[in-house]
Design goal:
The structure is a homodimer of 134-residue chains.
Chain A lengths: L6 H8 L3 H9 L7 E2 L5 E2 L2 H15 L4 H12 L5 H34 L10 H7 L3
Antiparallel strand pairs in A: 1-2
Chain A binds a DNA duplex (30 and 30 nucleotides) through α2.
Chain lengths: 134, 134
DNA sequence: ATATGGGGTTCCCATGATGGGAAGGTCAAG
DNA sequence: CTTGACCTTCCCATCATGGGAACCCCATAT
């Protein structure tokens, strides 16, 4: 009765590319789905749900290994929220650190660029900074 | 009189790893340095200066292809600062966009984490978000 | 029936910037 | 002559993702 959910269907409903679905299977992030006689993969509602979970975790920037852990906690009804929170907090710190690094670069460049007249003369504080400052 | 500057010396004075110096040469970002009879690379002061330039540009997050362009402008005494500025402004926009994306993730997660009691109970808004929200 | 098109499958290669490490050559000092 | 510290080239790994080849399967249009 329920139509076979192909990898394309799974991809479209979850927003995870077919390429990545196969990849997640190959690295053991998701378990291998059922196959038809033709060796075509088909996905259960549970599979789809799990792919949706992965998609949302990726959208929040979690690395695959974190997601592996989060999936295990998700499946474990006796999990402690403390463990989930710890993963999230570490990730938040990582995101903040990376964002701060990018912003520092941006701020430096903005300062240099604001002092660069940007005309056809060669003088340029940006080039000067790369040239001279250590 | 000037002692031979080996790749290690160049690495130590510029902060670019020997590995990366060879890599930059292999992709044509820097030109091949002189070699001793033993095929050991040795670097001129100009080479060192150029590696320092690359190092600073990398520290500001410029991708290699931008640096290739910046190096060309640097060497060109008749450059227009407008061209340098344009590269910098594009890069600033890129940095800002990436930083904003990371901050958005962080903000979402901070919100979820702040509502997560983080004890030994399983209930957790972080998991709920990954589970349910689309 | 058969051609066409659009799925599926596996496998290899590429990205960007960087590092690890193997296998082998060279050189100075003990 | 060995030891150790360099150098050389070459291959492989990271992280998440996509491109594309070569091939199989099936439904529909001619």
């Amino acid at each position: 009765m329920s139509e076979l959910v192909t990898i394309r269907d799974a991809s479209m409903t979850t927003g995870v590319s077919a390429k990545m679905i196969r990849h997640y299977e190959s690295i053991g992030l998701i378990s291998a789905p059922a196959r038809t006689e033709n060796r075509y993969r088909h996905y259960s509602q549970r599979d789809i749900h799990e792919l949706g979970f992965i998609r949302k975790a990726r959208d929040l920037g979690f690395p695959i290994e974190d997601i592996r852990h989060l999936l295990a906690l998700w499946r474990d009804r006796s999990r402690s929220s403390a463990e989930v929170k710890a993963i999230a907090l570490r990730h938040i710190a990582d995101l903040d650190e990376k964002a701060a690094a990018l912003q520092a670069m941006s701020a430096t460049l903005k300062h240099l660029a604001s002092n660069c007249h940007g005309d056809n003369r060669p003088d340029c504080p940006i080039i000067d900074a790369l040239d001279r400052l250590g």
